[in-house]
Write a structure and sequence with these properties.
The structure is a single chain. By secondary structure, the chain is mostly beta strands. 13% of the residues lie in helices and 37% in strands. A hairpin with a 7-residue loop joins strand 2 and strand 3. It starts with a helix and ends in a 10-residue tail after the last strand. 15% of the residues are buried.
Length: 164
Amino acid sequence: MRSSHFILVAALSALAACSNAAHGTNPSSASAPTAATNAAEQNLQWGPAPSVFPPGAEMAVLQGDPSKAEPFTVRLRLPNGYKIAPHTHPTTENVTVLTGTFLAGMGTQFVESSMQALGRDGFASVPANHPHYAMAQGLTIVQVHAIGPFALTYVNAADAPGAR
């Protein structure tokens, strides 16, 4: 009986804490980071991808701030045939394919014949400072998560948008 009482009290305390946090009544909740983030597809705010990407891509931020030194998750919507020239990132980049086909290649030269096709639910993790490149086959949406700040450095500076 005693252990059942303890479990019931612990469960009710946890429920009350969750309820208070959800309603903002916990005094410490104002300064504490959010415990969970939810992003329903219909609520995503799509906009042009940052100018470091070639024109035509769209991006939605799901979690975090890619410009800060913190975890972030974004989605990129890429039109058919969209290419990203060989580049690197200062942190590990993790990519999950949600729709379409994402072609990924490793190295400093864009070689379409050596790219690996990743379909829906495909995943790639590229180590920091490892040159890679990509292309979309069909309308493709990928989810990228990493630690910021996000930076993309083209292997060949002439490949950067606006460099021409």
